[in-house]
Specification:
Radius of gyration: 27 Å
Number of strands: 14
CATH superfamily of the largest domain: P-loop containing nucleotide triphosphate hydrolases
Oligomer: single chain
Structural class: alpha/beta
Number of helices: 16
CATH architecture of the largest domain: 3-Layer(aba) Sandwich
Largest sheet: 6 strands, mixed
CATH class of the largest domain: Alpha Beta
Distance between the termini: 68 Å
Strand content: 15-25%
Amino acid sequence: MPGVIPSSKISLVELDGLATTAQYEPVATLTQRLTVINPKTFLGSGKVEEIKQAVNHHKPEAVIFDEELSPRQNRELENIFKCKVMDRPWVILEIFSNHAQTREAKTQVELARLKYELPRLTRMWGHLSRQRGGIGMKDVGETQIQLDRRMIRHQIHKLEKKLVQIDKEKKTQRKSRTGTYKVALVGYTNTGKSTLMNCLTGADTLIENKLFATLDSTVRKIKKNFPYPVLLSDTVGLINKLPHDLVASFKSTLDEVRNADLLIHVVDISHDKYAEQMQTTDNLLREMGVNELEILTVFNKVDVLPKIDILDQALQDYPSSIGISCHSGQGMESLRKKIIYHYEKKLAPYRLSLKHSQANLIQEIRKFALVLKADYKSDGVILSLRLSSEAKSKLQSLLKQNLDFIQ
């Protein structure tokens, strides 16, 4: 499976990882630095001929391009190479299809796949006129393409309606968490977000050393050595040149990021090109419109760094960031303190009076507010609280006329 990567070395290594994750075995790599894109074959005629010879030699299942190909380029190259031709977005879609487990993830990936596939149907049905040729069968391939396009458009419409319903369900779930401080893990794929999730919450989120092991957002309460009610969500990993339709179809999953109070940007500091991965993540967060949220940068995998100077420089370049190792536990206590700091910044002091008959409500109040002190008087209980404006609204709505706020 020769890979054609007219881009940087990091993209070349990444494409190799994508291909392996998609269960292909790379056998050769060919690169070219392009100044002009050939609208017909993407590459120049000389490089196309070189790849053709490599294909004849290796007999691969597919040729993978690191850049997105137009439907025409895809079709022309398959005709020349006589084998399957794929581009980076399609490989990413294949990986997502293989890893999707839940109803939501499967629906999201299928929608993105069909939208990507629709304009590329010609190459998929080009063999039909040869197979079904005969009297009265002229242009059957074209007819089949038209029928299939209608089928796919119908399926896209069904999936979009299904996602609208899923999005409503997700919104209901998120509404039930209103007033609770929410932290979302974001970052490049395979940086250790799921491992960090497990370290902080005791959850058993899937951990695999491969790209896009996590597709579904998992929400858990931070438990280990943590004094406040904080929800942590793990989200799908990001990657350079992520297909636009995939980002769009994962709207409800990425809404966990949009609705967070704090983003923890997890970075694999041991990666040679961690700075480029950070920039890609920042760009995608900007596209999602969440770059204005508070972001805490966490450099993970410090235990496998060849030189500590790398971490020292990173911490200097990104003030307020911290270094951790989910494997050894290094820096985890500092991370918890950072989360507490950001949590407490959002809280305002309040005093609340309850009658003795309402004391059973204190346990419920703890779900929304930090109870600093409870003074039991002869005529009731005075609570000293710290809570967010959202929590106050939910508390007032929940207890309504039973409470008398004293600020």
